[in-house]
Design goal:
The chain is about 75% helix and about 5% strand. By secondary structure, it is mostly helical. The longest helix has about 55 residues. It is elongated, with a radius of gyration of 45 Å.
Length: about 230
């Protein structure tokens, strides 16, 4: 005996609603995917137009802005070759020679007193007087040596600072006259280095490694410095 399964009306309606619900979900997923595709496409389109606009603006800047005029100068060359430096070296050598002569005289006086001290009886009044005079001259010699050293350093510092300020002003004037936009300081290292401190200084300050085709103002700065010195003399 065969039994047939018969569904009730409510069960048949339930089976019919399942496919409809699934179709609704698939339709919703399709709509979401389309929205995502539109958003991604809009993003790429916007990025493309932004890129095109940026390149166009750069091209406009390049065509509208003329090339910058650049000059260079070697301060070391100016200091080495200008007449004021030569004159300063002569003055420094003359001053050092004079001070050296004075120190030599003090040193000879000390040697003579030391020899006389050896001939005196230790502890005697003459011995003590000679010893006092000798110590005073020794202190005087040491103090004079320290003073000369500091004086030379300060004098050289002041001289270098003054002429450097003049070099900067002349360079500015020349740059304005020639319509330059920038002037770089070009300093070529001199090998071998005399000390580790000089090497460290060069490493910290030597920034312009190579330049070609730029206007070198060094000789003109030297000429103006020399002309100014000739006028002031």
């Amino acid at each position: 005996m065969t039994h047939r399964f018969s569904a009730s009306p409510s069960e048949e309606n339930c089976f019919k609603e399942i496919p409809r619900h699934k179709r609704g979900q698939d339709k919703l997923k399709g709509i979401i995917m389309k929205i995502k595709s539109i958003i991604i496409l809009s993003f790429f389109v916007g990025a493309f137009f932004l890129s095109v606009g940026y390149e166009y603006s750069r091209a406009g800047q390049k065509t509208d802005t003329p090339g910058m005029k650049i000059g260079i100068i070697s301060v070391r060359k100016v200091l080495r070759n200008c007449k004021r430096s030569a004159r300063y070296k002569v003055e420094v050598l003359a001053d050092q020679g004079k001070k050296s002569t004075e120190l030599e005289k003090l040193s000879k006086d000390m040697q003579m007193q030391e020899a006389g001290l050896n001939a005196l009886k230790p502890g005697s009044s003459d011995y003590l007087a000679q010893l006092e005079s000798l110590l005073k001259k020794r202190y005087e010699l040491e103090a004079q040596q320290d003073f000369n050293k500091q004086q030379n350093t300060l004098k050289h510092h002041r001289w270098t600072e003054d002429i450097y300020k003049e070099i900067l002003q002349i360079t500015r004037d020349l740059a304005k006259e020639k319509g330059l936009d920038l002037v770089f300081e070009r300093e070529e290292p001199e090998f071998p280095m005399t000390s580790a401190d000089e090497l460290v200084m060069i490493l910290n300050t030597h920034k312009l490694i190579y330049c070609a085709g730029y206007l070198d103002l060094s000789d003109e700065v030297i000429a103006r410095l020399d002309a100014a010195d000739s006028t002031n003399q």
